[in-house]
């Protein structure tokens, strides 16, 4: 199987192998990614954290786990102009720096090995973690507790005052949602770093992993427009139009479709 097929196959296991699937996304972009080295590195991190954790009930060990990760050097990469390595899991394991989502995936894998209850939270702009049933979330970048007030402040800093905290922001992230979010992050990072073919791989994976939204089709349409593939662009614009419930956006999409050539040539 190719890396894409291996990634999707990981989701069909019981339970789904999210960490392994994320590594196969790395392989899809970097044929030199050494998965054996990644697993060996994770084994070493697992051993060191296991030895350092306090003697507490399992449901109280999530925050100590994240703090131990920070002690070992795992931290958010805050570079002004981010590049794909901040999201590619094999690079994060090697550098111990990356986006919150990548750090969260590593934390979830360590929690699984250590039998610590922990789940992902698909919070806008900053992936979070949570012990099931807890009244707070945890920042994968160091383990800070985040109560509703903290989450509202996080939204305010990232999106401004027009986005209130809603219940949907605190939904548990399924394995498919985690990998789809990772693919969206990589799609954006590859595009802003002018690697359009890599970005297109990510855009295609987003659609393969689960239900796509209007923005997903528009993002791929933008790539096809730059790559001068008008019929593929038309396909995505038509799907974006069907999914859109914004009247202004519907008008703009209709106008954009009218400007595309009507030829049915294959691209």
Describe it.
The protein is mainly alpha-helical and 267 residues long. It has 2 domains: 3-170, no CATH class; 175-259, Tetratricopeptide repeat domain (Serine Threonine Protein Phosphatase 5, Tetratricopeptide repeat, Alpha Horseshoe), CATH 1.25.40. The protein is built from 12 helices and 6 strands. The chain has a two-stranded parallel sheet. The longest helix has 18 residues, at 35-52. The protein is globular. The protein starts with a helix and ends in an 8-residue tail after the last helix. The mean pLDDT is 95.
Radius of gyration: 20 Å
Mean pLDDT: 95
- Looking across the biggest beta sheet, what order are the strands in? 1-2
Q: Low-confidence stretches at least 5 residues in length (pLDDT < 50)? A: none
Note the run of SSEs as H and E. HHHHEHEHEEEEHHHHHH
Number of domains: 2
Helix content: 55-70%
Tell me the structural class: mainly alpha
What distinguishing features does this structure have?
Serine Threonine Protein Phosphatase 5, Tetratricopeptide repeat; 58% helix; 2 domains; mainly alpha; two-stranded parallel sheet; two-stranded antiparallel sheet; 267 residues; 12 helices; 5% strand
Record the SSE blueprint.
Elements lengths: L2 H8 L7 H12 L5 H18 L9 H10 L3 E2 L12 H7 L1 E2 L1 H15 L4 E3 L6 E3 L6 E2 L6 E2 L1 H12 L15 H18 L3 H14 L4 H13 L3 H14 L3 H13 L8
Parallel strand pairs: 1-2
Antiparallel strand pairs: 3-4, 5-6
A few lines on this structure:
With 267 residues, the chain is mostly helical.
